[in-house]
Write a structure and sequence with these properties.
The complex is a heterodimer of chains A (429) and B (67). By secondary structure, chain A is an alpha/beta fold. In chain A, 40% of the residues lie in helices and 12% in strands. The longest helix of chain A is centred in the last third of the chain and has 17 residues. In chain B, the strands form two sheets. A two-stranded antiparallel ribbon of chain B has the order 1-4. Chain B has a two-stranded antiparallel sheet with strand order 2-3. In chain B, strand 2 and strand 3 form a beta hairpin. Classes of the chains: A alpha/beta (429), B alpha+beta (67).
Chain lengths: 429, 67
């Protein structure tokens, strides 16, 4: 067994710069224990200081400082609950699923250590029921129980196949036995979440990093990444040749390198996910995968999705399809989203057709303004961000469409969009 | 006391009463949902704001400390 504060052994045998990969190494429990030892429990709250010094931020999309979330739940003053959120609902992203498949014990260590830090004795792991994944995670939990590794009881929960199922308040609602729908967050989840208890919801990748920080410490974590955004992160890279790779990379790595844009040029790059931002390839190539660098371009790391649209595909057709999907995935609870997104989706499709009516563009912009920042969750905001950046980046294609032309040589869809549950027949459980 | 009017958009069912009771801070969009100004509620508007909160048929309004 390793000493609890020693550097992870794999760090010494790592092949890449900065000791990567830190997370993406396939390990069953024996291999995991051999490499890392049992979870390094150290007493309530002790870990929070180390996580703060490491500068870990949430890897689920919002990028909120992990230590602040831990502190808020720990200080709520009542018995807390911890949730590992693996409901990766971005259709084009698969990094959390991959992590859960190949290194479940890092996630489960992180879940235990987070529970200890905030004083929770109950924990949940919330994931989409991919074929085989639940069984795999169930076996992992059983093996840990047999080895006596876990202190908090862990329950596996299924997320419904909806885009918003992984939104924090939707996660809590589902675990409470309700539908996986976003809720109005007053009071906030860290005060009142699962069964009314203070609740910590962390993305599964965040938990895996937390487990590594508990072993390696803050300066080990900071050996990769930038001073402002330390560490490594998982990114789903959809390259222009159609290949998809989940890469573990130091934060700050140029997007051009991750997507291999020099050899596989794309027309444009989608950054962050379907709530993210389109950039021209030329702009994207030099930008780093880091919020500080992406912010001036109006983009954010988000859920770590990068997609390079191949030559010969129509960016407008792709964007219309995604916006239609996002409108159908509205929870339909808040008026501005319920009224705005379907109009936006239909209006965008009309705008992409020959000879759109003259006022349509102005209507679209007005609906976008009316929809954004008025929902209980960020779905309308993210959808509008996607729309606006598509209108900007594919402006010349849009003009061609208005004249009945399209530059695409292939109409095969590039960005994955689930063939949906028909609107109004939603199953949110 | 620096208070701000907020709407719970899930509870709101677009009755529009708030815009009648507090036109200084609430207007309605083209779908009749309230657009609420983030400006603080000055002392002279507090009574009307409290009335908007208590009279909302959906109980969708709340006064919170300004964030």
């Amino acid at each position: 067994m390793t000493a609890t504060h020693a550097l992870p052994r794999h760090d010494r045998r790592a092949t890449g710069p900065g000791g990567l990969p830190r997370l993406l190494q396939a390990m069953d429990l024996d291999a995991h224990l051999d490499a890392y030892g049992p979870p390094p429990y150290r007493g309530a709250r002790q870990l929070i200081e180390v996580v703060a010094a490491a500068g870990l931020t949430g890897r689920g999309g919002a990028g909120f400082p992990a230590a602040r979330k831990l502190t808020a739940v720990a200080e709520a003053g009542r018995r807390a609950v911890v949730v590992g959120n693996g409901a990766e609902s971005e259709p084009a992203s698969c990094k959390d699923k991959q992590l859960l498949w190949i290194a479940p014990h890092l996630v489960l260590d992180g879940l235990q250590l987070a529970a200890e830090a905030v004083g929770a004795t109950r924990a949940y792991l919330y994931v989409h029921p991919h074929p085989g994944l639940h069984q795999q995670l169930g076996s992992a939990l059983a093996a840990r129980a047999a080895a006596g590794l876990d202190r908090a009881e862990v329950q596996l929960m299924s997320a419904p196949p909806r885009f918003l199922a992984g939104e924090e308040s939707a996660v809590v609602s589902r675990i409470n036995g309700g539908p996986a729908l976003p809720r109005f967050k007053v009071p906030p989840t860290f005060q009142r979440g699962v069964a009314g208890a203070p609740t910590l919801v962390h993305n599964v990748e965040t938990l895996a990093h937390l487990a590594q920080i508990a072993r390696g410490g803050a300066s080990w974590f900071r050996a990769a990444g930038t001073a402002e955004e330390p560490g490594s992160m998982l990114a789903t890279c959809r390259r222009a040749d159609g290949t998809v790779e989940v890469a573990e990379t130091a934060i700050g790595t140029p997007l051009g390198e991750l997507l291999r844009l020099a050899e596989l040029p794309g027309q444009a790059v989608l950054v962050g996910g379907y709530h993210g931002t389109w950039l021209t390839s030329a702009d994207a190539a030099a930008l780093p995968l880091a919020n500080a660098g992406l912010r001036p371009a109006g983009a954010a790391v988000g859920a770590g999705l990068l997609a390079a649209l191949p030559p010969g595909r129509c960016g407008i057709a792709e964007a219309v399809r995604v916006v239609r999907y996002l409108a159908a995935e509205s929870a339909g609870q808040c008026g501005p989203c319920l009224s705005g997104l379907p109009r936006i989706a239909t209006g965008f499709a009309e705008l992409a057709a020959p000879r759109p009516r003259p006022r349509l563009r102005a209507d679209l912009e007005r609906w976008a303004r009316l929809a954004e920042r008025r929902g209980a969750c960020h779905h309308p905001d993210g959808s509008v961000s996607f729309l606006r950046s598509a209108l900007a980046v594919f402006a010349s294609e849009l003009t061609a469409h208005a004249h009945g032309q399209c530059s695409a040589t292939s109409h095969r869809p590039f960005l994955p969009v689930p063939v949906g549950v028909p609107a109004g027949q939603a199953d949110w459980t | 006391m620096n208070q701000q009017l907020r709407v719970n958009p899930i509870a709101c069912t677009s009755h529009g009463l708030c815009a009648e009771l507090l036109p200084e801070r609430v207007s309605l969009d083209e779908w009749d949902y309230p657009i609420i100004s983030s400006e603080p509620i000055p002392p002279g508007l507090r009574k009307a704001a409290r009335r908007a909160v208590t009279d909302c048929p959906a109980l969708a309004l709340l006064l919170t400390e300004r964030r």
